[in-house]
Amino acid sequence: MKKHVKYILLAVIIICAAVGGGVYYTLPLSVRMVEVVPQTAELNFTEQGTVRTGRAVLVFPAFHGEISQIFVAEGQAVSAGEPLVSVKADSLILRLEQVNNGIRGLEAQLENVEIEAENTRSRLNSTLQSLRGELRAVDAQANMSGMAFANQQEVYNEQIRLQQVVIASHENELARVSETLERTEILYEGGVVPLVELTSARTAVSVAQANLEAANTQLAVIVAGAGVSDTEHFEGIRASLTAQIEGLNAQLSQDSTAAARALIESQIAVEQLTAEQLRQEIANAVITAPVDGIITTLHAQNTNMLSAATPVAEITTSGETEIHVYVSTQDINSIKVGDSVNLTLRQRAEDIHFSGVVTEIENAAVVRFTALGVEERKVGLRILPQIAVDEGGLGLVLGDGFAVDVTFSLFREEGRLIVPRTAVFKADGRDMVWIVDGGRARAAYVVTGMELRTDVIIESGVEVGQVVVVNANNEGLRDGVRVVRE
To answer: What is the pTM of this model?
Structure first.
Protein backbone atom coordinates (compact mmCIF):
# COMPACT_ATOMS: atom_id res chain seq x y z
CA MET A 1 0.00 0.00 0.00
CA LYS A 2 2.79 2.37 0.88
CA LYS A 3 4.45 1.71 -2.47
CA HIS A 4 1.30 2.74 -4.30
CA VAL A 5 1.20 6.05 -2.38
CA LYS A 6 4.82 6.79 -3.34
CA TYR A 7 4.15 6.13 -7.00
CA ILE A 8 1.06 8.35 -6.95
CA LEU A 9 2.99 11.26 -5.36
CA LEU A 10 5.83 10.92 -7.86
CA ALA A 11 3.36 10.97 -10.76
CA VAL A 12 1.68 14.10 -9.38
CA ILE A 13 5.05 15.90 -9.12
CA ILE A 14 5.99 14.99 -12.70
CA ILE A 15 2.60 16.15 -14.01
CA CYS A 16 2.87 19.50 -12.12
CA ALA A 17 6.36 20.09 -13.47
CA ALA A 18 5.29 19.40 -17.01
CA VAL A 19 2.27 21.66 -16.69
CA GLY A 20 4.39 24.43 -15.09
CA GLY A 21 7.03 24.17 -17.81
CA GLY A 22 4.42 24.35 -20.49
CA VAL A 23 2.82 27.36 -18.90
CA TYR A 24 6.27 29.09 -18.57
CA TYR A 25 7.18 28.55 -22.20
CA THR A 26 3.79 29.69 -23.43
CA LEU A 27 3.84 32.95 -21.39
CA PRO A 28 4.96 36.06 -23.34
CA LEU A 29 8.45 37.53 -22.55
CA SER A 30 8.36 40.91 -20.80
CA VAL A 31 10.75 43.34 -22.54
CA ARG A 32 11.31 47.08 -22.93
CA MET A 33 10.25 48.36 -26.33
CA VAL A 34 10.54 51.62 -28.25
CA GLU A 35 8.66 52.84 -31.30
CA VAL A 36 10.83 54.06 -34.15
CA VAL A 37 9.83 57.60 -35.11
CA PRO A 38 11.71 60.45 -36.86
CA GLN A 39 13.76 62.39 -34.31
CA THR A 40 16.54 64.94 -34.08
CA ALA A 41 19.82 63.05 -34.16
CA GLU A 42 22.36 65.00 -32.13
CA LEU A 43 25.87 64.32 -30.83
CA ASN A 44 27.25 66.75 -28.26
CA PHE A 45 29.46 66.93 -25.21
CA THR A 46 29.95 69.38 -22.36
CA GLU A 47 33.11 70.83 -20.82
CA GLN A 48 33.43 73.30 -17.97
CA GLY A 49 34.86 76.68 -18.93
CA THR A 50 36.07 79.70 -16.97
CA VAL A 51 35.01 83.30 -17.47
CA ARG A 52 37.79 85.77 -18.26
CA THR A 53 36.87 89.43 -18.32
CA GLY A 54 40.05 90.51 -20.10
CA ARG A 55 43.34 89.40 -21.63
CA ALA A 56 45.51 87.09 -19.50
CA VAL A 57 49.15 88.25 -19.25
CA LEU A 58 51.82 85.95 -17.82
CA VAL A 59 54.61 87.75 -15.95
CA PHE A 60 58.04 86.06 -16.06
CA PRO A 61 61.17 87.04 -14.09
CA ALA A 62 64.26 88.11 -16.05
CA PHE A 63 66.49 85.68 -14.12
CA HIS A 64 66.33 83.05 -11.40
CA GLY A 65 66.88 83.68 -7.72
CA GLU A 66 65.51 83.38 -4.20
CA ILE A 67 62.34 85.32 -3.42
CA SER A 68 62.89 88.19 -1.03
CA GLN A 69 59.36 89.62 -0.73
CA ILE A 70 55.88 89.26 -2.25
CA PHE A 71 53.98 92.54 -2.47
CA VAL A 72 50.58 91.42 -3.86
CA ALA A 73 47.91 88.76 -3.40
CA GLU A 74 45.52 86.91 -5.70
CA GLY A 75 42.48 88.96 -6.61
CA GLN A 76 44.32 92.24 -6.02
CA ALA A 77 44.10 95.04 -8.61
CA VAL A 78 47.51 96.31 -9.75
CA SER A 79 48.77 99.09 -11.99
CA ALA A 80 51.50 98.88 -14.61
CA GLY A 81 54.90 99.29 -12.93
CA GLU A 82 53.64 98.25 -9.50
CA PRO A 83 56.01 95.82 -7.67
CA LEU A 84 54.83 92.21 -7.54
CA VAL A 85 57.80 90.21 -6.20
CA SER A 86 61.40 91.00 -5.31
CA VAL A 87 64.42 88.70 -5.59
CA LYS A 88 67.47 88.77 -3.33
CA ALA A 89 70.23 90.64 -5.17
CA ASP A 90 73.06 90.71 -2.57
CA SER A 91 75.40 88.62 -4.73
CA LEU A 92 74.68 90.82 -7.78
CA ILE A 93 75.47 93.99 -5.84
CA LEU A 94 78.77 92.47 -4.63
CA ARG A 95 79.71 91.43 -8.17
CA LEU A 96 78.89 94.92 -9.45
CA GLU A 97 81.20 96.49 -6.87
CA GLN A 98 83.99 94.10 -7.85
CA VAL A 99 83.54 94.94 -11.53
CA ASN A 100 83.54 98.69 -10.80
CA ASN A 101 86.77 98.31 -8.84
CA GLY A 102 88.28 96.47 -11.79
CA ILE A 103 87.23 99.29 -14.13
CA ARG A 104 88.84 101.89 -11.88
CA GLY A 105 92.06 99.84 -11.83
CA LEU A 106 92.11 99.60 -15.64
CA GLU A 107 91.46 103.34 -15.97
CA ALA A 108 94.46 103.98 -13.68
CA GLN A 109 96.58 101.71 -15.89
CA LEU A 110 95.45 103.64 -18.95
CA GLU A 111 96.42 106.91 -17.29
CA ASN A 112 99.84 105.48 -16.36
CA VAL A 113 100.37 104.46 -19.98
CA GLU A 114 99.83 108.07 -21.04
CA ILE A 115 102.17 109.35 -18.31
CA GLU A 116 104.82 106.79 -19.24
CA ALA A 117 104.46 107.69 -22.92
CA GLU A 118 104.94 111.38 -22.14
CA ASN A 119 108.03 110.63 -20.05
CA THR A 120 109.42 108.47 -22.87
CA ARG A 121 108.83 111.23 -25.42
CA SER A 122 110.56 113.75 -23.15
CA ARG A 123 113.55 111.43 -22.68
CA LEU A 124 113.76 110.73 -26.41
CA ASN A 125 113.66 114.45 -27.23
CA SER A 126 116.43 115.11 -24.74
CA THR A 127 118.56 112.34 -26.26
CA LEU A 128 117.76 113.60 -29.75
CA GLN A 129 118.94 117.11 -28.89
CA SER A 130 122.12 115.71 -27.34
CA LEU A 131 122.86 113.60 -30.45
CA ARG A 132 122.26 116.58 -32.74
CA GLY A 133 124.69 118.60 -30.65
CA GLU A 134 127.30 115.89 -30.86
CA LEU A 135 126.76 115.64 -34.62
CA ARG A 136 127.39 119.37 -35.01
CA ALA A 137 130.52 119.02 -32.87
CA VAL A 138 131.77 116.14 -35.04
CA ASP A 139 131.19 118.19 -38.21
CA ALA A 140 133.13 121.11 -36.70
CA GLN A 141 135.95 118.86 -35.51
CA ALA A 142 136.21 117.19 -38.93
CA ASN A 143 136.48 120.53 -40.74
CA MET A 144 139.36 121.67 -38.61
CA SER A 145 141.01 118.33 -37.73
CA GLY A 146 144.23 119.28 -39.49
CA MET A 147 144.81 122.54 -37.64
CA ALA A 148 142.70 122.60 -34.51
CA PHE A 149 144.98 120.53 -32.36
CA ALA A 150 148.48 121.37 -31.20
CA ASN A 151 149.72 117.83 -31.41
CA GLN A 152 148.72 114.27 -32.16
CA GLN A 153 147.89 113.55 -28.53
CA GLU A 154 145.02 116.00 -28.60
CA VAL A 155 143.67 114.34 -31.75
CA TYR A 156 143.96 110.98 -30.10
CA ASN A 157 142.11 112.14 -26.98
CA GLU A 158 139.36 113.76 -29.04
CA GLN A 159 138.82 110.56 -31.01
CA ILE A 160 138.41 108.60 -27.77
CA ARG A 161 135.90 111.15 -26.38
CA LEU A 162 133.80 111.10 -29.52
CA GLN A 163 133.82 107.31 -29.63
CA GLN A 164 132.64 107.22 -26.02
CA VAL A 165 129.78 109.53 -26.98
CA VAL A 166 128.86 107.09 -29.76
CA ILE A 167 128.98 104.19 -27.31
CA ALA A 168 126.73 106.07 -24.86
CA SER A 169 124.20 106.73 -27.60
CA HIS A 170 124.24 103.04 -28.60
CA GLU A 171 123.68 102.08 -24.97
CA ASN A 172 120.68 104.43 -24.83
CA GLU A 173 119.34 102.94 -28.05
CA LEU A 174 119.72 99.41 -26.68
CA ALA A 175 117.88 100.38 -23.51
CA ARG A 176 115.08 101.94 -25.56
CA VAL A 177 114.52 98.98 -27.89
CA SER A 178 114.84 96.53 -24.97
CA GLU A 179 112.03 98.38 -23.19
CA THR A 180 109.98 98.29 -26.37
CA LEU A 181 110.59 94.53 -26.69
CA GLU A 182 109.47 93.92 -23.10
CA ARG A 183 106.22 95.86 -23.69
CA THR A 184 105.63 94.11 -27.03
CA GLU A 185 106.02 90.66 -25.44
CA ILE A 186 103.34 91.53 -22.88
CA LEU A 187 101.00 92.76 -25.60
CA TYR A 188 101.69 89.69 -27.73
CA GLU A 189 100.79 87.38 -24.82
CA GLY A 190 97.56 89.37 -24.44
CA GLY A 191 96.73 88.83 -28.10
CA VAL A 192 96.90 92.54 -28.97
CA VAL A 193 99.89 92.59 -31.37
CA PRO A 194 100.79 90.04 -34.08
CA LEU A 195 103.89 87.87 -34.20
CA VAL A 196 105.47 90.02 -36.91
CA GLU A 197 105.57 93.01 -34.56
CA LEU A 198 107.18 90.91 -31.82
CA THR A 199 109.78 89.65 -34.32
CA SER A 200 110.54 93.22 -35.41
CA ALA A 201 111.10 94.28 -31.80
CA ARG A 202 113.49 91.38 -31.21
CA THR A 203 115.40 92.24 -34.41
CA ALA A 204 115.77 95.85 -33.23
CA VAL A 205 117.33 94.65 -29.97
CA SER A 206 119.76 92.41 -31.88
CA VAL A 207 120.79 95.30 -34.14
CA ALA A 208 121.29 97.64 -31.18
CA GLN A 209 123.44 95.03 -29.42
CA ALA A 210 125.55 94.58 -32.59
CA ASN A 211 125.99 98.34 -32.97
CA LEU A 212 127.07 98.66 -29.34
CA GLU A 213 129.57 95.84 -29.73
CA ALA A 214 130.95 97.43 -32.93
CA ALA A 215 131.33 100.82 -31.17
CA ASN A 216 133.14 99.19 -28.24
CA THR A 217 135.42 97.39 -30.71
CA GLN A 218 136.15 100.70 -32.46
CA LEU A 219 137.03 102.27 -29.10
CA ALA A 220 139.44 99.44 -28.39
CA VAL A 221 141.07 99.99 -31.77
CA ILE A 222 141.52 103.71 -31.07
CA VAL A 223 142.93 103.05 -27.60
CA ALA A 224 145.34 100.46 -29.03
CA GLY A 225 146.56 103.06 -31.53
CA ALA A 226 145.62 101.13 -34.67
CA GLY A 227 145.77 103.21 -37.81
CA VAL A 228 142.50 104.98 -38.64
CA SER A 229 142.58 108.26 -40.54
CA ASP A 230 140.82 111.29 -39.19
CA THR A 231 138.47 111.32 -42.16
CA GLU A 232 137.45 107.69 -41.70
CA HIS A 233 137.04 108.18 -37.99
CA PHE A 234 134.78 111.22 -38.29
CA GLU A 235 132.73 109.64 -41.09
CA GLY A 236 132.11 106.59 -38.94
CA ILE A 237 130.98 108.70 -35.96
CA ARG A 238 128.84 110.92 -38.22
CA ALA A 239 127.11 107.89 -39.77
CA SER A 240 126.43 106.36 -36.34
CA LEU A 241 125.02 109.59 -34.91
CA THR A 242 122.90 110.22 -38.02
CA ALA A 243 121.40 106.70 -37.87
CA GLN A 244 120.49 107.13 -34.23
CA ILE A 245 118.93 110.54 -34.87
CA GLU A 246 116.82 109.09 -37.67
CA GLY A 247 115.71 106.22 -35.41
CA LEU A 248 114.67 108.61 -32.66
CA ASN A 249 112.75 110.78 -35.14
CA ALA A 250 110.95 107.70 -36.44
CA GLN A 251 110.04 106.60 -32.92
CA LEU A 252 108.79 110.08 -31.96
CA SER A 253 106.59 110.16 -35.06
CA GLN A 254 104.89 106.90 -34.03
CA ASP A 255 102.31 106.30 -31.28
CA SER A 256 104.15 103.67 -29.27
CA THR A 257 101.30 103.37 -26.74
CA ALA A 258 98.48 102.63 -29.25
CA ALA A 259 98.58 98.86 -28.74
CA ALA A 260 98.71 99.13 -24.94
CA ARG A 261 95.86 101.65 -24.92
CA ALA A 262 93.80 99.44 -27.24
CA LEU A 263 94.25 96.46 -24.93
CA ILE A 264 93.29 98.35 -21.78
CA GLU A 265 90.39 100.16 -23.47
CA SER A 266 89.00 96.84 -24.75
CA GLN A 267 89.24 95.40 -21.23
CA ILE A 268 87.44 98.46 -19.85
CA ALA A 269 84.70 98.09 -22.49
CA VAL A 270 84.13 94.43 -21.54
CA GLU A 271 83.95 95.29 -17.84
CA GLN A 272 81.56 98.17 -18.53
CA LEU A 273 79.22 95.81 -20.42
CA THR A 274 79.35 93.39 -17.49
CA ALA A 275 78.58 96.23 -15.08
CA GLU A 276 75.63 97.38 -17.20
CA GLN A 277 74.25 93.84 -17.30
CA LEU A 278 74.57 93.55 -13.53
CA ARG A 279 72.84 96.91 -13.03
CA GLN A 280 70.02 95.71 -15.28
CA GLU A 281 69.71 92.47 -13.33
CA ILE A 282 69.65 94.37 -10.04
CA ALA A 283 66.91 96.60 -11.46
CA ASN A 284 65.03 93.46 -12.56
CA ALA A 285 65.29 92.01 -9.06
CA VAL A 286 61.98 93.75 -8.43
CA ILE A 287 59.44 92.22 -10.83
CA THR A 288 56.74 94.74 -11.70
CA ALA A 289 53.34 94.48 -13.36
CA PRO A 290 53.60 95.11 -17.13
CA VAL A 291 49.92 96.07 -17.43
CA ASP A 292 46.97 97.24 -15.38
CA GLY A 293 44.74 94.40 -14.22
CA ILE A 294 43.88 91.88 -11.54
CA ILE A 295 46.16 89.18 -10.14
CA THR A 296 44.20 86.06 -11.10
CA THR A 297 46.99 83.59 -10.26
CA LEU A 298 50.03 84.23 -8.07
CA HIS A 299 52.45 81.40 -8.81
CA ALA A 300 55.19 82.93 -6.66
CA GLN A 301 53.28 82.25 -3.44
CA ASN A 302 53.85 78.50 -3.86
CA THR A 303 57.67 78.54 -4.09
CA ASN A 304 60.77 80.17 -2.60
CA MET A 305 62.74 80.31 -5.87
CA LEU A 306 61.98 82.04 -9.15
CA SER A 307 62.98 80.70 -12.54
CA ALA A 308 63.00 82.49 -15.88
CA ALA A 309 60.99 79.56 -17.28
CA THR A 310 58.15 79.80 -14.73
CA PRO A 311 55.69 82.72 -14.49
CA VAL A 312 55.54 84.79 -11.32
CA ALA A 313 51.88 85.69 -11.76
CA GLU A 314 49.03 85.92 -14.22
CA ILE A 315 47.38 89.31 -14.62
CA THR A 316 44.00 89.64 -16.30
CA THR A 317 43.38 92.99 -17.94
CA SER A 318 39.97 94.59 -18.27
CA GLY A 319 38.30 94.09 -21.62
CA GLU A 320 35.85 91.94 -23.52
CA THR A 321 34.35 89.03 -21.58
CA GLU A 322 35.45 85.62 -22.85
CA ILE A 323 35.01 82.04 -21.71
CA HIS A 324 38.14 79.88 -21.74
CA VAL A 325 37.56 76.14 -22.09
CA TYR A 326 39.69 73.08 -22.88
CA VAL A 327 38.54 70.30 -25.23
CA SER A 328 39.97 66.80 -25.67
CA THR A 329 42.19 66.21 -28.70
CA GLN A 330 39.70 63.47 -29.69
CA ASP A 331 36.99 66.06 -30.32
CA ILE A 332 38.93 69.18 -31.33
CA ASN A 333 38.95 68.39 -35.07
CA SER A 334 35.14 68.53 -35.09
CA ILE A 335 35.17 72.14 -33.88
CA LYS A 336 36.05 75.23 -35.92
CA VAL A 337 36.13 78.98 -35.37
CA GLY A 338 32.63 80.43 -35.80
CA ASP A 339 30.79 77.39 -34.41
CA SER A 340 27.90 78.10 -32.04
CA VAL A 341 27.87 76.59 -28.56
CA ASN A 342 25.33 76.42 -25.75
CA LEU A 343 26.37 77.97 -22.44
CA THR A 344 24.90 77.26 -19.01
CA LEU A 345 25.53 79.25 -15.86
CA ARG A 346 24.53 77.08 -12.93
CA GLN A 347 22.44 78.94 -10.35
CA ARG A 348 20.83 77.76 -7.11
CA ALA A 349 17.40 79.02 -8.07
CA GLU A 350 17.43 78.42 -11.82
CA ASP A 351 20.14 77.74 -14.38
CA ILE A 352 20.69 80.42 -17.02
CA HIS A 353 21.10 79.25 -20.62
CA PHE A 354 22.59 81.38 -23.37
CA SER A 355 24.69 80.90 -26.49
CA GLY A 356 28.24 81.70 -27.59
CA VAL A 357 30.57 81.57 -30.58
CA VAL A 358 34.03 79.99 -30.87
CA THR A 359 36.47 82.85 -31.60
CA GLU A 360 39.88 81.18 -31.19
CA ILE A 361 41.38 77.68 -31.13
CA GLU A 362 44.92 77.26 -29.85
CA ASN A 363 47.50 75.42 -31.98
CA ALA A 364 48.94 73.09 -29.33
CA ALA A 365 47.57 70.72 -26.71
CA VAL A 366 48.42 71.01 -23.02
CA VAL A 367 48.27 68.56 -20.15
CA ARG A 368 45.19 68.92 -17.93
CA PHE A 369 44.13 66.85 -14.95
CA THR A 370 40.62 65.70 -14.06
CA ALA A 371 39.21 65.95 -10.54
CA LEU A 372 40.41 62.37 -10.02
CA GLY A 373 43.95 63.24 -11.10
CA VAL A 374 43.72 61.58 -14.53
CA GLU A 375 46.01 63.19 -17.13
CA GLU A 376 44.38 64.37 -20.36
CA ARG A 377 45.62 66.15 -23.48
CA LYS A 378 43.41 69.10 -24.28
CA VAL A 379 43.34 72.15 -26.56
CA GLY A 380 42.31 75.61 -25.37
CA LEU A 381 39.43 77.54 -26.96
CA ARG A 382 38.01 81.05 -26.54
CA ILE A 383 34.21 81.54 -26.51
CA LEU A 384 32.49 84.91 -26.93
CA PRO A 385 29.12 84.88 -25.09
CA GLN A 386 26.21 86.16 -27.21
CA ILE A 387 24.46 88.17 -24.51
CA ALA A 388 24.92 91.59 -22.97
CA VAL A 389 26.55 91.01 -19.61
CA ASP A 390 25.06 93.02 -16.70
CA GLU A 391 22.36 94.43 -18.93
CA GLY A 392 18.60 93.75 -18.53
CA GLY A 393 16.97 90.56 -19.76
CA LEU A 394 18.32 87.70 -17.67
CA GLY A 395 20.19 89.96 -15.32
CA LEU A 396 23.29 87.91 -16.18
CA VAL A 397 26.46 88.58 -14.22
CA LEU A 398 29.66 86.91 -15.47
CA GLY A 399 32.49 87.72 -13.12
CA ASP A 400 36.10 86.81 -13.74
CA GLY A 401 36.69 83.19 -12.75
CA PHE A 402 33.02 82.10 -12.92
CA ALA A 403 32.41 78.50 -14.05
CA VAL A 404 30.24 78.02 -17.15
CA ASP A 405 29.21 74.74 -18.82
CA VAL A 406 29.99 74.79 -22.54
CA THR A 407 28.07 72.33 -24.72
CA PHE A 408 29.49 71.60 -28.17
CA SER A 409 27.32 70.09 -30.90
CA LEU A 410 29.32 67.79 -33.19
CA PHE A 411 26.36 66.51 -35.24
CA ARG A 412 22.72 67.44 -35.66
CA GLU A 413 20.14 66.32 -38.21
CA GLU A 414 16.35 66.42 -38.14
CA GLY A 415 14.01 63.58 -39.10
CA ARG A 416 16.39 60.66 -38.57
CA LEU A 417 15.40 57.19 -37.33
CA ILE A 418 17.35 56.34 -34.20
CA VAL A 419 17.27 53.47 -31.72
CA PRO A 420 19.15 52.85 -28.48
CA ARG A 421 22.60 51.38 -29.05
CA THR A 422 21.59 48.46 -26.79
CA ALA A 423 18.92 47.48 -29.34
CA VAL A 424 21.53 46.52 -31.96
CA PHE A 425 23.37 43.19 -31.90
CA LYS A 426 25.70 41.32 -34.23
CA ALA A 427 24.86 38.14 -36.11
CA ASP A 428 27.02 36.69 -38.85
CA GLY A 429 29.04 39.93 -38.85
CA ARG A 430 25.97 42.08 -39.57
CA ASP A 431 23.94 44.47 -37.44
CA MET A 432 20.47 43.30 -36.39
CA VAL A 433 17.58 44.39 -34.15
CA TRP A 434 14.56 42.59 -32.69
CA ILE A 435 11.38 43.94 -34.30
CA VAL A 436 8.08 43.28 -32.49
CA ASP A 437 5.54 42.14 -35.08
CA GLY A 438 2.16 40.78 -34.03
CA GLY A 439 3.28 40.34 -30.47
CA ARG A 440 6.26 38.23 -31.44
CA ALA A 441 9.96 39.08 -31.76
CA ARG A 442 11.55 38.89 -35.18
CA ALA A 443 15.25 39.45 -35.96
CA ALA A 444 15.87 41.93 -38.79
CA TYR A 445 19.07 43.07 -40.50
CA VAL A 446 19.72 46.82 -40.39
CA VAL A 447 22.27 49.28 -41.73
CA THR A 448 23.50 51.62 -39.00
CA GLY A 449 24.86 55.14 -39.34
CA MET A 450 26.59 57.49 -36.91
CA GLU A 451 26.78 56.42 -33.30
CA LEU A 452 25.52 59.03 -30.88
CA ARG A 453 26.13 59.14 -27.15
CA THR A 454 23.48 56.50 -26.26
CA ASP A 455 21.73 55.95 -29.59
CA VAL A 456 22.58 54.96 -33.14
CA ILE A 457 21.12 56.14 -36.45
CA ILE A 458 19.37 53.47 -38.55
CA GLU A 459 19.92 54.07 -42.25
CA SER A 460 17.74 51.13 -43.44
CA GLY A 461 16.07 47.96 -42.21
CA VAL A 462 13.50 49.58 -39.94
CA GLU A 463 10.49 51.67 -40.93
CA VAL A 464 8.69 54.49 -39.19
CA GLY A 465 6.20 53.17 -36.61
CA GLN A 466 7.85 49.81 -36.08
CA VAL A 467 8.66 48.75 -32.54
CA VAL A 468 12.05 47.35 -31.53
CA VAL A 469 13.26 45.69 -28.36
CA VAL A 470 15.51 48.00 -26.33
CA ASN A 471 17.77 45.31 -24.82
CA ALA A 472 18.84 42.91 -27.56
CA ASN A 473 20.88 40.81 -25.14
CA ASN A 474 17.82 39.45 -23.26
CA GLU A 475 18.49 35.70 -22.99
CA GLY A 476 14.85 34.79 -23.68
CA LEU A 477 14.74 36.45 -27.07
CA ARG A 478 14.52 34.22 -30.14
CA ASP A 479 12.68 34.32 -33.42
CA GLY A 480 8.93 33.96 -32.91
CA VAL A 481 8.90 34.27 -29.14
CA ARG A 482 5.88 36.11 -27.74
CA VAL A 483 6.76 39.41 -26.10
CA VAL A 484 4.88 42.06 -24.14
CA ARG A 485 5.84 45.58 -23.19
CA GLU A 486 7.54 45.72 -19.83
So the answer is: 0.42
